Amino acid sequence: MSIRWPFFKKKKKKTTELTEDIPKHVAIIMDGNGRWAKRRGLPRIAGHKEGMDVVRDIVIAATESGVEILTLYAFSTENWRRPKAEVDFLMKLPKEFMHVYLPEMIENHVKIDTIGEFKGLPDHTRDAINHAKEKTKDNKGLILNFALNYGSRNEIVKAVKEISNHVNTGTLKIENIDEELFSSYLYTKNIGEPDLLIRTSGEVRLSNFLLWQLAYTELWFTNELWPDFNEELFEKAMIDYQARKRRFGGI
Ligand code: FPP
After folding, report:
1. Ligand 1 centroid – CA 48 distance (Å)
2. If you measure from the C-alpha of residue 218 to the centroid of ligand 1, how many angstroms do you get, rounded to a whole number?
3. Which of 36, 93, 120, 147 is a plausible cystine mate for 47, CB 3.0–4.6 Å?
4. Annotated catalytic sites, by residue?
């Protein structure tokens, strides 16, 4: 992974409570779009659209706070079970997001990336993302990492298959398999593990998100629905994170 250098990073937001110990990698399960829309008598897709705009706000907040990597759970391998019209809408959101916000992302030195089964996405979704990846590939600011068509169990099984294949062909010895090597077969090989996981909407589960990578991550839950999430709540999550003692199994 290249060294990230904060020359041009905007000054960290000044609050009395936030210390310099900013989580380097924050992951978010953006949940509650459907309920947000339902409460307003709107179709579910209206919640997703609103959620897309919140993504922009949190990217900017993360950049200003000095977060280096933001991994957002945008579409899971299980989300294909939703009605076709909703899936189609969700698959158009990356293009919409890039159309509206790519210039601002570039202005803020954001580098766009993805994790998940990229080949399983529709062509138009892949094209929009590839365009954004290409335009931002040399940026040295925040890595905005969309988990799209992502499932953690699927990722782990894929890694096991690749490792087995390398053992079978003699390029890898069983005795060389350890946690570090296993991690290098995951989508997150270049970005490592989140320091902080946020989940909105009051659900308290991981929903097949980064199961291996979250082993020592601090978990933070809020009842707010994703479209109501904002910079203040994001900062609150980081303040709570800073109040916790991470011992990684030690004492
Ligand atoms: C879960 O809420 C949310 C999703 C499955 C989609 C999340 C996507 C966004 C927030 C927009 C992403 C933006 C880009 C640029 C890709 P839900 O629909 O399950 O809500 P519910 O639990 O209330 O039904």
Report:
1. 5
2. 22
3. 36
4. 31, 79
Q: Which atom of ligand 1 is nearest to the CA of 73?
A: 7
Taking the complete model, does pTM exceed 0.90, yes or no?
A: yes
Write out the two tokens for 250. 């030690």
Q: What is the pLDDT along the chain (251 residues), one digit of tens a residue?
A: 344 444 444 445 555 589 999 999 999 999 999 999 999 999 999 999 999 999 999 999 999 999 999 999 999 999 999 999 999 999 999 999 999 999 999 999 999 999 999 999 999 999 999 999 999 999 999 999 999 999 999 999 999 999 999 999 999 999 999 999 999 999 999 999 999 999 999 999 999 999 999 999 999 999 999 999 999 999 999 999 999 977 778 87
* Amino acid letter, residue 178: D
Ligand 1 closest atom vs CA 97: 15
- Separation of CA 33 and ligand 1 centre (Å): 5
Q: Whose Cα sits closest to atom 22 in ligand 1?
A: 32
Question: Of the residues 40, 48, 121, 136, which should be mutated to test ligand 1's pocket, given the most ligand atoms within 8 Å of the CB?
Answer: 48
* Residues within 6 Å of ligand 1 by CB: 30-35, 48, 51-52, 55, 74, 79, 90, 93-94, 97, 146, 201, 226
